[in-house]
Structures are given as structure tokens and as C-alpha cells.
Amino acid sequence: MQYNWQQKDWPDFHYDLLGVDAYLLRYLEKTAHLSGILRALPEALKSEVAVDMMTAEALKTSEIEGEFISRADVKSSIRNHLGLSKPPENVHDLRAIGLGQLMAEARNSFDVHLTEQQLFDWHRALLSYRRDLNNLGNWRQHSEPMQVVSGAMGREKVHFEAPPSVEVPGMMSEFVRWFNESEKVDIKSSLVRAAIAHLYFESIHPFEDGNGRIGRVVAEKALSQGLGAPVPFSLSRVIEADKKSLLCSIGAGAANQRSHQMARILHPSGASGIGGCRGGSPFHCEKRHSSSTASRGS
Q1: Would you say residue 69 lies in a domain?
Q2: Statement: the pTM of the whole predicted model exceeds 0.85
Q3: Side-chain half-sphere of 170: how many Cα atoms within 13 Å?
Q4: Residue 99 above 80 pLDDT?
């Protein structure tokens, strides 16, 4: 099978917005309405609402990957990293500490250019508690294929194989350049940009682990830049509500043998997605081909 990154016109993405205009308009209307409500709130209440939205995002982006973390720990971590708790609140779960740091840093830097160092910092914050990763805060470097698979041990189905690690630095340099050069678009186009950014990033799968969570932060950054403010909703909450269709759609875009087409930018549920797919198994883990176990923490 030939994957999108193996095609001659990679990474020249093509998409068709036919039939999704209504969803794009609904997105514009809802975000404008929510943004207006938030602007009218007292400053103290704005902070609490922001913390609640960030907490919802942090919990859902983890649940998508099968991780369930204490809401209290995550909320305390976010408040600590935003400087809202004096003295800092106790956080018992190391995963919550890093997750709160990632959410706070992503929100505070939504309007600055994306850099490779920023991606490394996000990766290090998210997975600082992991002792089994060889390249924390850096691109993957292993020689084994990076595959996205599903199924029981010994009966795995390979849905997608990412580019070899040796190609990741060059591809990510190009991704960061594209992301920054494509920033100045209107709000409607920013939704399309976020969808492309999501598929583009996940197709490269640049890290040893954590690609799903960081890819959603990248997509949210693109949406926030289009709005000129942090998004007033949890992207992962919407994705988690229709996770199978969303992951299936990403897979269709990443494994499309003919073109990098996005047959659907929006699902009826309102989530941003790529490609078109009906049925099939969603991705649920990453693995290096020669390893005896699969890593689920995407």
C-alpha cells in the first residue's frame, strides 16, 4: 500500500468543501456567540470558565487515548500553571502535572508562531513522567517502522505506517514552515487549515508517543489563531463524542492511495475531521514493528 507521504505531490493537500458549507457557517455562528458571552463575563469569572474549559479538554484528550486522570488534579495543575493559585495547590498525579502545563502553555502561546522547540517542550511536558521513552522532547529516532494498528496481539491489523524516522526532521521542518505561512486566513478558512494541520501532523507521526494529544493541540492552535483568541470550547470533547468516525476519517486521509483528499472536513457532530470512511476499525495504538508490545499512549 502506498501512503499519502509516499506520493509525488506530498504534502500538497487537496480538499472538497462541497456539502459542508452549512457546518462551516454553524461553526462561525456558535463560536461568535460563545465568544460574545465570554467577553461579557466579569474578569474573575472569565478565569474560572477558562480553567473549566481547559480541564474538560485535558480530560477528554486523555480519555481518547484510554487514560483517565483525576479531574481535581488536572484542574489544580492548570490553575497552578496559569498562576491562579497562591500558594500552588497539591497535585498527586504526575500525569496531571504535565497535562496542566501543556494546556496552559498552549493557551498562552496560541498567537505566536509554532516552532520545533515549542513542539519539543509540549512533548516533554506531556510525558515527563515516562521513563521508557528514548527520545523525550525530540523526534523519534528508532529504526523500526512506526505503525498504527488495532486488534489483539498476534492478530494486529496495520492501518497506517508513518514515514521512517530518518525523514521526520525534514518533514517536520516543512510542516512548521507551512503552519506559520498559512496563518493569515479568514475564520472560515481557519477551520479547513486546522483540519489539514491535524492530518498533516498525524501522517508524519513525529514522536515516539503522544502524537494524538499533541496533534489535537496543534489543531486547536490553528482554530485559536483564526478566531484571534483561545477557542471557547473543548475540541477533544467533540472528537471523543464520535471518536470512531473521526479516527476512521483520519485513517482514510492518511492511507489514501490516490490523493491526499479530505472528503469530509466536518462531521455532522461538528468535529473537525479528515477524509471519508464508513465502517472499519479505529486506530487505537502505535507500535514499533519489532517490539513485542504496542504503546497505547498516543
Answers
A1: no
A2: no
A3: 8
A4: yes
